[in-house]
Amino acid sequence: MVDALSEKSRTAFIFMDFQNYILKNFLPPERAQQVVEKAHAVLEAARQSGCLVIHVMVCFRPGYPEINGRNRMFSWIRESGMAIPESHEIAIDDRMAPRPEEPVVQKRRVGAFGSTDLDMILRAQGIEKIFLSGVATSHVVLTTFSQACDLDYDLAVISDACADGDETAHTFLTETFFSKAGDVHTSQAVVDALKK
Question: Do the beta carbons of residue 196 and residue 51 sit within 8 Å?
């Protein structure tokens, strides 16, 4: 059961890293299709309910000046050239594309709060409850969850609107870890609650 949706004006849905190159390179095709379908259903329900919708994407400037060679996670992205700035690959999947009125937060690292204005946007809008959805569960979702917990937000993760190339990690996080500091719901439960 999903609680805290009676205060929709204080609730935000954050969709993270649903970008073409991430879906293509970090998930099997069938899993990528499934997670986008689940996240899209939540996205549409959140829009219709009037909740704040925020999109987060990882991107870099031409030449990747933000990437240090010591950063193992990002240095190979730079070397492979798979996340070329302004390319189709870096763009958010068409099914999850932001509307003009929906903020898009650009980040240079894993978590959605570090070195971004996400917290400023949430506080300016009076947001207390946030629902997280994204790829990958063990990267952007986990890091953002931990950051949001430290910032005292009321947290929920939408389990099947998150995905990871490592199913063991995804299962552990969604079935064991996240519930220690927040709520975990399925996309259907969230959609049903939004329609009430």
Answer: no
Read off the pTM.
Answer: 0.94
Asked whether residue 116 is assigned to any structural domain, the reply reads yes
Average pLDDT by consecutive 10-residue portion of the chain (196 residues)? 72 98 95 98 97 95 86 80 82 97 96 96 97 98 98 98 98 98 97 92
Residue 169 lies in a domain: yes
Asked if residue 158 lies in contact with residue 51, where contact means CB atoms within 8 angstroms, the answer is: no
User: Distance between CA 83 and CA 132 in Å, rounded?
Assistant: 23
d(CA 162, CA 133): 5
* Number of structural domains found in the chain: 1
Domain enclosing residue 36, as ranges: 8-59+93-194
Strands of 11-16's sheet in order across: 104-107, 52-58, 11-16, 129-135, 154-163, 183-185
